[in-house]
Specification:
- By secondary structure, the protein is of the alpha/beta class.
- The two termini are about 40 Å apart.
- About 0% of the residues have low confidence.
- β11 and β12 form a beta hairpin.
- The radius of gyration is 25 Å and the shape is globular.
- The longest helix is centred in the last third of the chain and has 27 residues.
């Protein structure tokens, strides 16, 4: 396997620090609103990379942070007259609804910034002890001039940044590029006690503290959007490596922008669609295929015409998946020989995606397979092994890695109209509301009645999921 490493600007053989373990961190959302389909690209591509690593036999620990204290959250909550903590909680819940809707597998951990303040304080204290951080009346800054490798990820030079930077003037800083590690408390903002007085952490220190707490001082893969290379990821490297004197990340992976008419999709420009808006019109499989058809690092122009094409394409895969599933259920097989070489297709898929997670080539292999399998099934009475192998290939690649087909087919003709999942989610929301209102009797009744018909609710720190007893 080879990965393009943003740090070295070249493809490198993938060798984890401690194989077969892989420690992977992806920058998660700042929970102040519903995330847009551009954000969704990072979440989905991170999910596909993790799934592929699992497919290749690695033991992956996958962590995504939740930024639940930040300028944007505070500003929006104050504008609405709401408590910032409760406001963030609301959008954390909405985040999980939307990633579930996109069929993104839950991370192994979702550390929240507000739950790791003590870790951030300890990290800042280390930087102070090493004389790379300085306190000015309760504001603590990182001194970029003290880190000789500053700019090694982005390729930016400190002198050039200083001369051309459009950075807010702050007389407290030694250098305009110095960034905040700890912010002195202001009226109307959340605050915590610290050695420098009451305040809250800066954004960059949050990711360093949470990633190292969960995954250790050197990560195998750190991923995120290309817009985070500078200053966020550059600053993460500076503060983490200054504190530990170790390499912070072995492989940096960055996802390209999702554009509309060649312009970056963003909330500030107003040219965006939320993920939930898109999912009301299109299945998750279509969105995931659209993303998989462009290399993760390249820009992608979003359009509903492209989504329409992706939807039709997923239907071709789904049609074959249903055919082989129904044939296996019928137990009516023949004994004619077939020419399709399943191992060859599996090898082609692996060779394609091994090259810097080249999912577009992997997708092409799957569609070649669909065409070949359909051709084999024409006017032939094939043995059971053909259908077992076809199902196995599609499950491992199209379902388990890419998430562009789902073998758990719903019967659209039943009285629920194929809406069972949505109905269960509505009941889960009603139960959460009942718990919030301390109506525990109603919450327990909803859980028990669902359990009685074989739907088991599973509560965790990140929300409530369910499974159906067979």
């Amino acid at each position: 396997m080879k990965i393009y490493n943003t740090l070295t600007k070249k493809k490198e053989e993938f060798v984890p620090v401690n194989p077969p373990k892989v420690r992977m961190y992806v920058c998660g959302p700042t929970v102040y609103d519903y995330f847009h389909i551009g954000n969704a690209r990072s979440f989905v591509m991170g999910d596909m990379i993790r799934r592929y690593l699992l497919y290749r036999g690695y033991d992956v620990k996958y962590v995504m942070n939740l930024t639940d204290v930040d300028d944007k959250i505070i500003k929006r909550a104050n504008e609405l007259g709401e408590d910032p903590k409760k406001y963030a909680e609301k959008y954390i819940a909405e985040f999980f609804k939307d990633i579930d809707g996109l069929k993104v597998k839950r991370a192994d951990a979702y550390p929240r910034a507000t739950e790791h303040i003590s870790d951030m304080i300890e990290l800042i204290k280390k930087l102070e002890e090493k004389d790379v951080a300085y306190n000015v009346d309760g504001d603590v800054f990182y001194d970029v001039r003290k880190f000789k490798d500053y700019g090694k990820l982005s390729g930016k030079k400190i002198d050039e940044l200083e001369s051309g930077a459009r950075i807010e003037i702050n007389e407290n800083k030694k250098n305009p590029l110095d960034f905040a590690l700890w912010k002195k408390a202001k009226e109307g903002e959340p605050e915590w006690e610290s050695p420098w007085g009451k305040g809250r952490p800066g954004w960059h220190i949050e990711c360093s503290a949470m990633s190292m707490k969960e995954l250790g001082e050197t990560l195998d893969i750190h991923a995120g959007g290309s817009d985070l290379i500078f200053p966020h990821h550059e600053n993460e490297i500076a503060q983490s490596e200054a504190a530990t004197c170790k390499d912070f990340v072995k492989y940096w992976v960055h996802f390209g922008f999702l554009n509309i008419r060649d312009e970056k999709m963003s909330k500030s420009l107003g040219n965006f669609y939320t993920a939930r808006e898109v999912l009301k019109k299109y299945p998750a499989e279509a969105v995931r295929l659209l993303f998989a058809q462009t290399h993760y690092a390249a820009p992608l122009n979003f359009s509903f015409e492209l989504l329409d094409s992706a939807k039709k394409a997923t239907e071709r895969i789904s049609s074959l998946a249903k055919t082989v599933t129904e044939k296996l259920a019928s137990k009516n097989f023949g004994d004619e020989e077939y020419e399709l070489n399943f191992e060859e297709f599996e090898n082609k898929f692996r060779i394609a995606v091994d090259d810097d997670f080249n999912f577009p080539k992997g997708v092409a292999v799957i569609f070649d397979f669909v065409k070949a399998a359909n051709r084999e099934m024409q006017n032939k009475n094939l043995p059971k092994s053909f259908y077992e192998n076809a199902k196995g290939f599609l499950e491992r690649t199209a379902q388990d890695v890419l998430g562009i087909v789902d073998f758990n087919f719903q019967d659209e003709d039943k009285s629920t109209g194929g809406k069972q999942d949505e109905l269960i989610k509505i009941l889960i929301e009603l139960r959460q509301k009942a718990k919030a209102e301390k109506n525990y009797a109603l919450a327990d009744e909803i859980r028990d009645k669902l359990s009685a018909i074989g739907i088991i609710l599973q509560d965790s720190k990140t929300g409530t999921t369910y499974k159906i007893k067979s």
